[in-house]
UniProtKB/TrEMBL annotation:
It catalyses: (S)-4-amino-5-oxopentanoate = 5-aminolevulinate. One of its GO terms (biological process) is protoporphyrinogen IX biosynthetic process. GO terms for cellular component: cytoplasm. The modification N6-(pyridoxal phosphate)lysine is found at residue 267. The gene is hemL. Keywords: Cytoplasm, Isomerase, Porphyrin biosynthesis, Pyridoxal phosphate. This is Glutamate-1-semialdehyde 2,1-aminomutase. It comes from the Bacteria. NCBIfam families: hemL, PRK00062.1.
Length: 427
């Protein structure tokens, strides 16, 4: 493929934008090469600046669960735009989306809209601290909860991709209140509660991790976290920025039958526009301003265009009773068939999958925490990534990311993907 225009655009962007990108993982730094500049996206496909076409397995890092530019969402955004882009006042739309979520997601009485997953997670931590009167919280190595200071400690996603999970600029004072444990290691969590008795406000966890590649909770990990929180008066925060409305409409809470005290959302909830949210029971959410004392605000929170895109997306998902069954089945087929091909080539690998999230790790062992994800063969992943890219298949440009399957990926796209992978040679 030719990437002439993409390369020129990147050179130009590099002069004006740090690293040429507005979010680090887009830079292809881990896999090498020049990032591809896209100019349009529709359904299962994206088209780049050189007119190359790709089947997309990133789907904007999760939001495009219906596929890109779904016609009904597009129409809804256009109609809303006629009525104004932003009011800075309440609007009926905000209540409509809040009501749909509260009525269909477990353990959620109220929801507050923000503009990103980062805001949702940092606000949820503030609320948990305000509610419990405690300062510390537990997070897991390789989990990413956005780029707010207190989360950039052994963070996953881009932070892990660049080998810099602890960001300069985060003060020691902030870092000391973030306690770390290994994902799926309940004994470490027990130890933290023992050594910090009465000081831990919350545990925040990706119930299915997607930021060290896709890593699943094992051995009742989530149920045991719930139990430890109850025993120690801490809140359990499910970061469902990836899993919310993707694993099921009720997210991982529904799939694993575990109650979270607070849940954070992003990605699918905005249907491709910038939206995040955090939600929980009345007794906790009532502590938020203006009702309560915990302050949180946003100029564009509840933005009407974004609410319309999110609401239409969620309604379309709700309307299709086979929606989750279908995308999960597509993902299962990919997992199974890719596994068969890699086995036939004697390429050591593990595929982790839950719902419509999956990752291929080039690893002989199972992958259930960050160290195991880090020990996979990332240089082989990089070769795999570039081979697929050259052949019009767009994977996340890092072995520390999950693939997001959209409803627009059908048999034709799967067949093409498998045809390409069949030609992949281990080098
Ligand atoms: N939480 C999780 C689990 C995420 O995957 C992400 C982003 O990928 C975030 C939080 C941050 O969301 P945003 O990038 O919208 O700030």
């Amino acid at each position: 493929m030719l990437y002439q225009r993409s390369s020129a655009l990147f050179d130009e962007a590099y002069q004006y934008i740090p690293g040429g990108v507005n979010s680090p993982v887009r830079a292809f730094k881990s896999v090498g090469g020049v990032p591809i500049f896209m100019k349009s996206a529709r359904g299962a496909y994206m088209t780049d600046a050189d007119d190359n076409i790709y089947i997309d397995y990133i789907n904007s890092w999760g939001p495009a669960i219906l596929g890109h530019t779904h016609p009904e969402v597009l129409e809804a955004i256009k109609k809303q735009a006629e009525n104004g882009f932003s009011y800075g006042t309440p609007s009926e739309l905000e209540t409509a989306i809040a009501k749909l979520i509260v009525e269909n997601v477990p353990n959620v009485d109220q929801i507050r809209m923000v503009s990103s997953g980062t805001e949702a997670c940092m606000s949820a931590i503030r609320l948990a601290r305000g509610f419990t009167g405690r300062d510390k919280f537990i997070k897991f190595e390789g989990c990413y909860h956005g780029h707010s200071d207190s989360f950039l400690i052994k963070a996953g996603s881009g932070a892990a991709t660049f080998g810099n999970p602890n960001s300069p600029g985060v003060t020691a004072g902030t870092a000391k209140d973030t306690l770390l444990a290994r994902y799926n290691d309940i004994e470490q969590v027990e130890d933290l509660f023992r050594h910090n008795a009465g000081e831990i406000a919350a545990i925040i966890v990706e119930p299915v991790a997607g930021n060290m590649g896709c890593v699943l909770p094992e051995n009742n990990f989530l149920q045991n976290l719930r139990k430890l929180c109850d025993e120690n008066g801490a809140l359990l925060i499910f970061d469902e920025v990836m899993t919310g409305f993707r694993m099921a409409f009720g997210g991982a809470q529904e799939v694993y039958s575990v109650k979270a005290d607070l849940v954070t959302y992003g990605k699918v909830i905005g249907g491709g526009l910038p939206v995040g949210a955090f939600a929980g029971r009345n007794e906790i959410m009532d502590h938020l301003a203006p009702k309560g004392a915990v302050y949180q605000a946003g100029t564009l929170s509840g933005n009407p265009l974004a609410m319309r895109a999110g609401l239409t997306t969620l309604e379309l998902i709700r309307k299709d009773e086979n929606f989750y069954q279908n995308i999960n089945k597509t993902t299962e087929t990919l997992d199974f068939e890719i596994g068969k091909i890699l086995n036939s080539k004697n390429i050591e690998h593990r595929i982790n999958r839950k719902g419509s999230m999956m990752s291929v790790f080039f690893h002989i062992n199972s992958v259930s925490n960050f160290d195991e994800a880090a020990n996979a063969n990332h240089s082989l992943f990089n070769n795999f990534f570039h081979f697929l890219l050259e052949n019009g298949i767009y994977l996340p440009p890092s072995g520390y990311e999950t693939w997001f399957i959209s409803d627009a990926i059908k048999e034709k796209e799967i067949d093409r993907t498998l045809e390409v992978i069949r030609k992949f040679e281990y080098s």
